[in-house]
Amino acid sequence: MTQLEEGSFKNRDKLFSMKLRDLLKLYVDRYKSKYRSNSFEYAIRVINRTNIGACHLAHLDGVRLSNFRDLMLQTRSTSTVRKYLLIISKAISIGTKELGIPFDHNPVSMVNLPTDPAHRDRVLSEHEKVNLFNSCEDSPLFSMRSIVEFAIETLCRRGEIFNLSYNQCDLTLGEAFVSKTKIGKPRKIGLSPRAIQIIKDLPRTVDGKLFNVKSISSFEKQFRSVVRKAGILDFHFHDLRHTGATILAMKGWTTHELMAQGGWSSAEMVARYANIGAKHLAKRLQSK
User: Fold this and answer.
1) Which of 175, 252, 256, 257 shows a CA-CA span of 20 to 30 A to 270?
2) C-alpha torsion sign, points 258, 37, 238, 197
3) Is the pTM of this model over 0.70?
């Protein structure tokens, strides 16, 4: 491992003793400062828990990777499985170029990546939002409604919300510093009066985080449960971000304001998230 870290390793025999999880560990150690989101390391842990993580690099091929893909697709979305495969591909590429691991080719290139689904534009109606809030009140997770409302109010991603701490929130100025983001670029966001009130009402946690959520998978199960009990179909947690962006767009927020708040890098991405309905457009025209 020391030779690999120094980039001096050239012995092909090591391909038969080094496992994919070893390579992924080196990859994480080198790039965890760049990929600040916990979702990155969580993805690595998921990969390592499967048979592919224990596979020696010499045996890593298209057949094993396609079996891994198909297994993951049984319980995870196409975009998530695609991300897992791209992480493996990136680790192999870095290992070849920077660590001197003698791969003849990148085996991920032998696998058909899952096709990203058509762009989602799912937004809660006002009636659905009320039903969801009421259902959250019956959740075993005390802070479920607060988390859901906070997501709509701030446009933050799930990982950003769960990593946000009290000392990163200035309730006087109405600002929060999101240090761990999906793209690894910290940003400051505005806090609405409702978001500020949510923070004030939350019980303090031992680790200083706003929300005491230890398991992403457990939270997802509970969120799916409240959605189902609310009678809402085809709705994911990430759709709360769509809903919040749409609400702000309908209030007159500019594209650049939405980009700054939501952490989007382009106007095109904002357009995908802010789904303004025809009824709102009709009202705007009638008010002129």
Assistant:
1) 175
2) negative
3) no
